[in-house]
Amino acid sequence: MTNVRKMKKEAQNKSYSTDQELTSIILEPAGSYFFQPNDLISITRHGIFKRNLSLLAEKLSFTMNEISRVLHVSERTLQRYKDEDRLSSDISERTLMLTNLYERGVEVFENADNFTDWLRTPLPAFNNQKPIQLLDTSFGFQLILDELGRIEYGVFA
């Protein structure tokens, strides 16, 4: 945990606002907490590159079907985008939400594999649904983030 705190402290002096930096955050979680809200709004409006979405989906071990359900877009539409194409603001926003969730999950579970396994495990806290099934709404994202907070502090429902 101290390593994450150290990374947060070091990153506070940096300005994260480019797609390259977003890529590095996906590759090494513990960075999106350092984005200022205005940066996130700007990135969302400008659109992120499809390659960042592809990288995130790979890190989460999401199938094209799963990622399209989370982003509220058809698989075919996603397939039409080239890696260097910018995604719409709606897709970019949900991708940033997913990036934040991924980062938080890796922080709590201290391992990406453990987090992705947890996403696919039916949990009593979610009425025996898998967390991945809740990612189609912003309320679902918040429920999962809340549950990660409870897990971090040892409060199990």
Strand and helix layout:
Layout: H1 2-11, H2 19-27, H3 37-46, H4 50-60, H5 64-71, H6 75-80, H7 89-109, H8 112-119, H9 138-152
Helix pairs in contact: 2-4, 3-7, 7-8, 7-9
Q: Beta-sheet strand percentage?
A: under 5%
Radius of gyration, CA atoms, in whole angstroms:
15 Å
**Helix/strand-derived class?**
mainly alpha
| Helix content range | 55-70%
Averaged pLDDT: 84
Essential attributes:
mainly alpha, 9 helices, 62% helix, disordered N terminus
Question: Mind explaining what this structure looks like?
Answer:
The chain is an all-alpha fold. It has a domain at 2-110. It contains 9 helices and no strands. It has helices at 2-11, 19-27, 37-46, 50-60, 64-71, 75-80, 89-109, 112-119, 138-152. The radius of gyration is 15 Å and the shape is globular. The model is unreliable at 1-17 (pLDDT under 50).
Brief write-up:
The protein has 157 residues and is an all-alpha fold. It has 9 helices and no strands.
